[in-house]
């Protein structure tokens, strides 16, 4: 299971004060110095964390390190103020992976996946995106039906990211039955999607406590983790924390 480190929170801290600290360049480099697959950025129209300068920095570093850039965002978000629009950014920076999320612009963080049956437009976006990116992933809830999953087969969507928020919440509740239920949904969907040739990503609210059970499933290709890594870094340091996550991912 590969780890992509989400660096939104580094930029969030910088933007909260203005100026240049913490340095996005330094933390992106430190992350890429570790044995991770790459980094994830989620530029938002309000520019509250990742700004285009960060994408440029990440783009240059990714080339040097020969690792992977994953850019998340809503393809329906067009240019506004200094934000160029998601599709424009993808065409310009050609990340290895583009992850489509259905967030509204004012959302604090992603909290649900696409309603695939209502989102035929997704397939057109994926076709456009695959001209620039090897992988077009869509963020989905773990309770989608087999029929819904089939709607994306034979399209340019070649990966899914499982929204793990409900699983993380079940872990916090410490209810064995809720945890087993969420893990079972993840396993069934991941098995089916893998069989159909899709890459399986997972993310949201993952941490050192809930990650080992996901690793054990041996079905997930990549996790993208931000918030918990940055929180734990405050006491343990960034490099040490990233390496703890890498160790869990390696099983
Ligand atoms: N995946 C998606 C689609 C996200 O929007 C985010 C948050 O930016 C993450 C994963 C990472 O979540 P967390 O910050 O909780 O690790």
TrEMBL record:
The keyword Transport does not apply. Homooctamer; tetramer of dimers. InterPro entries: Aldolase_TIM, PyrdxlP_synth_PdxJ, Pyridoxine-5'_phos_synth. Its EC number is 2.6.99.2. Its main location: cytoplasm. Pathway: Cofactor biosynthesis; pyridoxine 5'-phosphate biosynthesis; pyridoxine 5'-phosphate from D-erythrose 4-phosphate: step 5/5. This is Pyridoxine 5'-phosphate synthase. The gene is pdxJ. 1-deoxy-D-xylulose 5-phosphate binds at residues 44, 49, 109. GO terms for biological process: pyridoxine biosynthetic process. 3-amino-2-oxopropyl phosphate binds at residues 6, 17, 205, 226-227. The record marks 161 as: Transition state stabilizer. GO terms for molecular function: pyridoxine 5'-phosphate synthase activity. It comes from the Bacteria. The active site is at 42 (proton acceptor), 72 (proton acceptor), 204 (proton donor). Belongs to the PNP synthase family.
């Amino acid at each position: 299971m590969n780890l992509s480190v989400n660096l939104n929170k580094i930029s969030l801290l910088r933007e909260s004060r203005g100026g240049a600290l913490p340095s996005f360049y330094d933390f992106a480099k430190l992350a890429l110095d570790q044995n991770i697959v790459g980094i994830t950025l989620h530029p938002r129209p309000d520019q509250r964390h990742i700004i285009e300068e960060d994408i440029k920095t990440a783009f240059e570093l990714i080339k040097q390190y020969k690792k992977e850039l994953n850019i998340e965002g809503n393809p329906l978000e067009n240019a506004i103020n200094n934000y160029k629009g998601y599709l424009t950014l993808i065409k310009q920076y050609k990340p290895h992976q583009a992850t489509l999320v259905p967030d509204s612009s004012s959302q604090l963080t992603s909290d649900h996946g696409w309603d695939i049956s209502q989102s035929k437009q997704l397939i057109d976006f994926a076709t456009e995106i695959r001209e620039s990116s090897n992988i077009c992933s869509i963020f989905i809830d773990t309770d989608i039906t087999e029929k819904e999953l089939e709607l994306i087969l034979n399209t340019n969507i070649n990966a899914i990211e499982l929204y793990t928020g409900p699983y993380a919440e079940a872990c916090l509740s410490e209810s064995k039955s809720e945890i087993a239920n969420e893990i079972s949904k993840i396993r069934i969907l991941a098995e089916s999607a893998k069989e159909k040739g899709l890459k399986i990503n997972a993310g949201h609210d993952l941490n050192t406590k809930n990650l080992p059970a996901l690793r054990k499933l041996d079905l997930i290709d990549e996790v993208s983790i931000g918030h918990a890594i940055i929180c734990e870094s405050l006491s343990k340091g960034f490099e040490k924390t990233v390496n703890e996550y890498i160790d869990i991912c390696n099983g």
